[in-house]
Specification:
6 helices, 53% helix
Length: 95
């Protein structure tokens, strides 16, 4: 799809998105970049985190997401709100 590497036909697996797996080995550094423009457009058009982690993914993708959110915001009641706020700050328009 759109020239992206990797599996484009099946559900997204935790193995595909878990940085703990991606950082291993010689190929690890090539997985360090994301398309910020793509994330920004997704946030403007949809931005539905629950759908992003839950639809078209294996069940363990949501678990991995929850683990990382818990590590970042342990005491936070509205973790999804914190993630949305953080993404908004990171991908805010350049002045």
């Amino acid at each position: 799809m759109h020239g992206a590497d990797g599996n484009q036909e099946d559900k997204i697996r935790a193995l595909d998105v878990d940085p703990r797996v991606k950082e291993r080995g010689m190929a690890g550094p090539r997985f360090k970049a994301i398309d910020g423009d793509l994330v920004g457009r997704w946030m403007d058009v949809d931005g539905d985190l629950e759908a992003l982690v839950g639809e078209g993914t294996e069940a363990n993708v949501g678990r991995v997401f929850a683990e990382f959110v818990a590590e970042m915001w342990e005491d936070e009641m509205d973790a999804m709100g914190k993630v949305r706020g953080w993404l908004g700050e990171v991908f805010m328009p350049v002045l």
